[in-house]
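During the reporting period the student researcher (J.K.) took over the structure-prediction task from the postdoctoral fellow and processed the backlog of single-chain submissions. One of the processed entries is reproduced below for the supervisory committee.
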Amino acid sequence: MAERKVQPTLINIFRLADARNWFARRNEILKTLLAAISPALPGFVKPEYTFSVDPVCGWIRFRLENDLWQVKPKRALPQDAEAATKAAEGLIARLREACRQKEYLRLEIPPLLPDERFARIVPVGATPVFHYSQPWVDHWLCRFEVHLRPFKGERAEVRVFGSEIDIRVGQRSTVTGFVSHWRPALLAEPQRVPMFPPVEEHGHARGEGAHSHGAGEHGEAGAAHGHDEKADVHPLEEQPPPNLIYELHGENCPQTFITPYYLSLEGHHGGMLPASSHSLLVSMGFAEKEGGGAYVVPRVFGGSGDYTFNWAYWRPEALFDEGLISGGRQEFIELPPGVFNLMLHVADNRTGVVHLHESMTFVKGGPPPQEPEQLV
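J.K. obtained the following structure tokens:
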């Protein structure tokens, strides 16, 4: 009897729009944000604020100056964490509703917060924040994070690392600060890609379908690519693995997809491993050169194996004189002795996933000069 072929387990990944779309519409975004905050403002208060949208990552920062860090006691603050969280959740609900209105839809940009049809915004905690120079609580800080659904037709959710949303709540439950690390995501159009099997600790199952690209002998760039077809066909249990997460990259880091990873607790610090065919991890490897200096090679784990590299670096002591120095698009670079801030941009040519890795490194010099022989 012929063996039945097990179908691959597919997992959702989510495309991100260019954050410059938000940046270009920042004035309209500010109006939307102010309209969502204004119901809690007294009618006689004219908002004074600082506001920004990051053009690379889409992070939004808003601070209402009327209420934060005033030098008189706050007598109308929320009484407890539950009341502060309720006020913050009110802003979230109003923002979501505003992004569904015709005025916002005409902008043709993704919503500022993920729609509840596709994601959940989960409260993490609420903390009273004391005034930096006075003996009283100035406001409440309420933190939220986003959870996404990894599988089609399932309600199960996993958290998104790096998706923090901080809302500060002041007098009369007024929102005085809003910082969102969410990005312009197209959640209504998920792509389903092969999922790697769950990771076993102690290094035996790392998602064997992943590709790796690393250093060869003597620091020369080399590649080791391998694909185990069986890695993509493991059936999944009813619930997602407990160490499965999604990740948003940090500030000033470009990103094209929200992809899944496994958290690994092995070792002192732990780490992440790719959980899908589109998940990508990037670091750098170093090999000392004889006589001083070093080779630097990319270490790429995951993806298709077909990458384009783009190197750049700057020296802290010469930044204003030299600026940012291009290292080219080759598979490895050579650095002389010194201190460098290195940047490596990796693009997967088949999947469209990109990743930026940055690292500060000290490159050793050669052996110290020998003392001249004394004349006898």
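The committee noted the following: The longest strand covers residues 119-130.
J.K. will present the remaining backlog at the next meeting.
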